[in-house]
Write a structure and sequence with these properties.
By secondary structure, this protein is an alpha+beta fold. The protein contains six helices and seven strands, in the order H-H-H-E-E-E-E-H-E-H-E-H-E. Strands 5-7-6 form a three-stranded antiparallel sheet. It has a two-stranded antiparallel sheet with strand order 1-4. The longest helix is centred in the first third of the chain and has 14 residues.
Length: 187
């Protein structure tokens, strides 16, 4: 992101709008996003036991439901009309995607990169939140796992806010990297 784009975020989250993203901006951003989230959280804690108790076993596709994606959603450049997510979070995810589709950031849906994927975290031994069908990736190329947000990654803050309003965690805003990734669990 540009210095001006970072300043705009800093103004919104109530920290010094100097265009430099450091620990104070990161903390203010997390606090701001948490203030948008429903309280109490509708989602489980992020540990595997809490996730399994809430969503069911990883890889259990009977917990998945099919739902409609907004018109204009593309996967690898091709139109995609439906996706599968865990039954416990699919309705919430649908609302987020519809909000994004009706916003100036709607083009981010042209870079949809998946929800359910039964796999472990990259480089880890724990299951990915995708293995429960409780995570989504958008616009992976400029927002990858090792790309810092907002300094290098380009995930629009308005998209992050749309997810926060439903209680979803933005990896970019909360971890400072992997800005393509959003998950339905507590921060």
């Amino acid at each position: 992101m540009t210095r001006e784009e970072i300043q705009k975020i800093q103004k919104k989250i109530g920290t010094t709008p100097d265009g430099e993203w450091g620990p104070k901006s990161h903390l203010a951003c997390k606090q701001y996003l948490v203030s948008l989230m429903p309280s109490p959280s509708p989602w489980p804690k992020s540990d595997d036991v809490s996730m399994t108790n809430f969503y069911g076993r990883t890889g259990d596709e009977t917990n998945l439901v099919r739902f409609d994606l907004p018109p204009g959603t593309l996967y690898e450049g091709k139109p995609v009309r439906h996706a599968r997510a865990n039954d416990r979070c699919a309705e919430s995810l649908s609302r987020v995607l519809k909000a994004i589709a009706n916003s100036p950031q709607k083009d981010i849906l042209k870079k949809y990169s998946g929800i359910y994927n039964f796999r472990k975290m990259r480089g880890g031994s724990r299951f990915s939140k995708h293995a429960w069908g409780a995570a989504i990736d958008l616009d992976p190329d400029p927002n990858g796992n090792k790309t810092s947000w907002p300094q290098e990654a380009s995930m629009p803050f308005e998209v992050i806010e749309a997810f926060a309003k439903e209680g979803w965690v933005s990896a970019g805003a909360f971890w400072g990297r992997d800005a393509m990734h959003f998950e339905a669990c507590q921060p």
